[in-house]
Specification:
Helices cover about 50% and strands about 20% of the residues. The chain has 5 helices and 5 strands. By secondary structure, it is of the alpha/beta class. It starts with a strand and ends in a 5-residue tail after the last helix.
Amino acid sequence: MILVGIDPGLNLTGYACVEVTTGDPEPRLLEAGVIRMTRGESMPARLGHLFEQLEAVFEEFAPGKVVVESIFSHRSFQKAGLLMGHARGVVLLAAQRRGVGTAELAPAEVKRALTGNGRATKAQMQQAVMVQCGLPEPPSPPDVADAIAIALCAGRREHLEAAPAVD
């Protein structure tokens, strides 16, 4: 099964496609990148661009599931959480329009799964993704690393849920 991990944003949205195969606990990274929206464009224009680009990714990879980072909001940055909600809505809509199932993962859960620390920094996440995927350098911008981390975490979880119970 192909999983697409999404780190949603209104300026940059990271995405990563991984393949989960029966018998292999480690998802295989197929592609990762970033969708860039133009700063200064209207909100509807940015959301429309995001939708079109997501449709292209979903068309190319035909995912069985899309996994998106859940909303988190810190008291000091409440507006950021609200704005991210717009991008998440577009991701969920694009998946629903293609009939693809969705799931959410909390940022702290993804960080803990990849680094052992639920409060890992962006740089720590980039390093962990680079090492775990055997990449020659850390993924950049950090939104790409976050999307890869989401996809890896979801892929590993998918493998565990599909594994037969051991008595």
